Amino acid sequence: MKVFFTVDGSEPSTQSTVYEGAFDVALGTTVKALVVMDGKAVQELEERFAEDVGFVWDSGESAGNPAAAQAETAKLHEVVVNATVSGYHGKGYAQFANKKGCHVEWYQENDGDAGKTNLTIRYGGSGKEGKGYKVAVLVNGKTIYPALPLPSTGQGWSTVVRGIPIGRGANTIRIVGDFNAGLRLDEIVVE
């Protein structure tokens, strides 16, 4: 994974400066970034730095938690965005199909030191016979939890919190739900 950025207001491309660590930014500057994974652009970011604005790369639709990353804006595979069950944050949620390989993947930038952090997963659904779900949690391609249980919530929402390792700089967090039809992922929080 690589992150390319500009500080002159132009749109970033794979020809722009590669992000390798902290850099100075003058007040009033707009930083634009392009995240590329496996040769594909997966996320575009933009942030203006000034005295009247803060530093948050987020849509602002996370129900008062600017650290939340919405599932409907993540990289989805065999998962659809839905909004029929109320109570979600953002513009919807990711709903899993009854297929192998279904997953949702987020890009997570860490400007601090590598180490352990907490991952909060907000989810919903009943699972087969109301028994909930089991999902795999991968961080940077390494399986951290091969079968993390997500107990049944019915039509409601719940959270699970687990410790995960996170590296300095660019990270990916993937939740895989093989054959978990009906599982709804709303958001994650890494803190």
Please outline what is shown here.
This is Chitobiase/beta-hexosaminidase C-terminal domain-containing protein. With 191 residues, the chain is mainly beta.
Category by helix and strand content: mainly beta
| Strand segment tally | 15
**What would the principal axes of the Cα set say about the shape?**
elongated
Please give the share of residues in helix: under 10%
Can you count the helices?
Answer: 0
Distance, first to last CA: 22 Å
CATH first level of the largest domain? Mainly Beta
- Uncertain regions: pLDDT < 50 for 5+ in a row? 54-64
Number of domains: 2
Largest sheet: 6 strands, antiparallel
Query: Approximately how much beta-strand content do the residues carry?
Result: over 45%
The ordered H/E elements are EEEEEEEEEEEEEEE
Radius of gyration: 17 Å
Mean model confidence by pLDDT: 87
CATH superfamily of the largest domain: Galactose-binding domain-like
Domain CBM6: 67-191
Protein name: Chitobiase/beta-hexosaminidase C-terminal domain-containing protein
Organism: Haloferula chungangensis
Strand and helix layout:
Blueprint: E1 2-6, E2 17-18, E3 29-37, E4 40-49, E5 68-70, E6 75-77, E7 79-82, E8 93-96, E9 103-110, E10 115-125, E11 133-139, E12 142-150, E13 154-166, E14 169-176, E15 184-190
Antiparallel strand pairs: 1-2, 1-3, 3-4, 5-15, 6-9, 7-8, 8-15, 9-14, 10-13, 10-15, 11-12, 11-14
